[in-house]
User: What shape does this take?
Amino acid sequence: MKAALFVPCFIDAFFPEVGIATLELLERLGVAVDYPLRQTCCGQPMANSGDQADAAAVEALFVENFKGYEYIVTPSGSCTHHVRDNFDAIPQTQEVQEVRSNTYELVEFLHDTLKVEDFPWAEFPHKVGIHNSCSSLRGLRHASMSELAEPEFSKPKALLSKVKGISFAELSRPDECCGFGGTFAVFEEPVSAKMGYDKVNDFKEAGAEYVVSADSSCMMHQQGCSERLGLGLKFIHIAQILNGANS
Amino acid sequence: MKKIHHAEASSYFIEAKDNEAFHDQRLWDLRQKRDREAAVIPEFQELRNLASQIKEHTLTHLAEYLEQFEAKAQANGVTVHWALDAAEHNRIVYDLLTDHSVRTLVKSKSMLTEECELRPFLERRGIEVIETDLGERIQQLDNEPPSHIVVPAVHKLRGDVAKVFARTLDTDPDNDDPNYLSEQMRVKTRHFFVDAEAGMTGGNFAVAETGGVVVCTNEGNADLSANVPPLFIASVGIEKLVPRLDDLAVFIRLLSRSALGSPITQYTSHFRAPRKSGEMHIILVDNGRSERLGMEEFWYSLKCIRCGACMNTCPVYRRSGGLSYGAVYSGPIGIILNPTHDMRKYSSLPFASTLNGSCTHVCPVKINIHEQIYGWRRVLAKHNQLPFVKKAAMKVAGKILSDPQKYRKTIDVADAAIEHLPRFLLYSRMNAWGRQREVPAPPDQTFHAWYLKNREGKQ
Amino acid sequence: MSTRDLILDAVKRNQPQAVSLPDVPRFDRDEAPLLELFKANLERMGGKLAEFTAGADLNAWVAENYPEAKVVCAATPEVSGNRAITDETDPKTLENVDLGVVRAVFGVAETGSVYLSERQLSVRALGYLSQHLLALLDPADIVGNLHHAFARPEYTDNRYSVLMTGPSATADIEGVLIHGAQGVRSLTVALVANGDGDSITV
Assistant: This one.
């Protein structure tokens, strides 16, 4: 199987280890991974600000980089949600529609497409709290949502449960948004920070050593909050744990 | 009109730490009670689908249902009035009151009369208006608008209420026991029901097949307002129509469960005709609704039954308080309703959201609230209503992110990443990020650089 | 053009593409006996259910359970009371009623509500100006859910209908639940079969 890897801009710049883990993990699972070198961003920051005009060229470049791939995999729920559900600043040609429907977030790619049964190399003897970004939870349906009173399921937890030694911390408000929200984090700084503080305190009280998520952007915000509060929480992307990181 | 600045207003509420903490917890508690109801009714999701369809059906046939409702109500002995906007509504009420020599009007909570700013209009003309819902009365006495559709004074603590009552009702300033405060309110308000010459309510629903207006309260104050004074006026938005009693059942099953997590309100009343020797008037109010009906992307907001579930679940609303929205309607539903009235004034509201989508999934009539918030951002951008800083940042970001060479130049130097990235990725000055958060440490190299070194070169 | 026609015109012009009206099922299901469900929900909503042994004297029961009630106004013959009421009674005169007594038409198990119209209340205000309310209900007249309740003919027959569920309540100050906000301070539902004054044990 062949797949293209999309490493979103903030992961490229701030969390290269997440990109590396994703690449290595996919290779371990037998996927031939292409990394188109001219990639930048999916256009989400502009589009979420309503700015379709400035999103258009970025979306066009994304299509240029990823057209023709049957699988485009990225370790970011929010970017996947944008490409799949809101990527319409440019004309919706056949090519564009294919790129949109062929884009997968890593967790769902592992869980639904590759149907990975185990990660024999992975061991993580720590108590982790799972953070589902809102894009992953309600946009991509990574897990059941409390709003719908539906039978419980969680794709990230199902994958992590295959990792030796891991245990889970249960939050009091597992589905609560952490307050990152892209530009919301700076334009609505007072509320964003308060939400972030509440979120990391919930992890702390639940006894989590690590916060694990499929979205580095939420964690960048939460880590900033946790460090400011001196909570000592550690943050790690799910790709890293599944790829065998052990601390 | 002065623009609303939600972010700035929210900081004041967050600084009132005890209020904010209580507010968040209290509304979260309502959300959890709502979840328990959703879990025990097996057909809850089916009811949401039905409610959504019934509303969409009604709105797409609204003219005929309005005519049916009017004919039925008139046959029941009710006088039906039509008001194009707030001014006409207020004028109709005022004329009715003066025709009946009314000096005191008792009323139950109505978001529509808030929308029309009826109270100040009547007060300026010498009519005493008494809000009779406890929360709404607290807000009236404190000269503040309601901060929540269902629980108007939820942003206040008991001590705040004690202060307001001591100042305005001459109660004991040192007694903040809610039982004492509620009892004082009862004792000091009840005589108004008997003395007032007119009573007024809003309407949760208007049933076309019966010509009846349905009002739901927990205090029974709507029934007191409507049934004791000789003149009863109900103001109803034209979007409140439902075709049949069968449809009403669906909404009554959902309303209080979604709002407060209780199976029904204490009183669910169906007013079809005046009381003996009384008069009943219904005012059907448009005030922008017919125009919104024609907005392809946004007409769904007319399905709203004003339960407040979206506010209770909204993590932003719970932290910022309803008053920070600077509008009659706050929270997620306010974000999508207010700009239809004044896009410029409320241009910051669609950005007072993380687009987390919880609101959409608790909405009993399945309004796609977070998608409409997203839609409003596009409309605002198109109409040049984005804040200057944001617009400028997006221009720069768009230029860099659509040009691989520029992008690489900007971030490939590791040190430069921390220098430049927050600016174009986070779109603001560093201090907005760093005021209450640490800034991430820059890595030694970007993923791209690592890839070139470890993969590309080896192929 | 009148405002009415302006509004109807604008509505007609702007109505989106027609969506059809769904049929609403009654959602019947087998579950706990209706009376038990009714009782649980009524009590949850702050109402009380009065239990009787056969042949109990309702007047004596009222005297015993509402010892403070000086003015008792009964709109149903099972209880005598000491304040007369007819549909001509001025609502304002009910301000000093301590206990109102009415007979409800039916109950709703799903919510613990009782149905009243002005036929039962004589004067609507009796249900709200009274300090306390006692509603007699025939336990045979409990419907399962609100779909059945709103399908009852009373809704099209009566000028005013109310589903009453427990006493007047508020939680507007710090979420503290308080009964007797503006309307009645208590609502008790007494299970008394229709017509014969018979009562039952629950």
User: Anything to note?
Assistant: The domain at 41-287 of chain B is CATH 3.40.50.10420 (Rossmann fold).
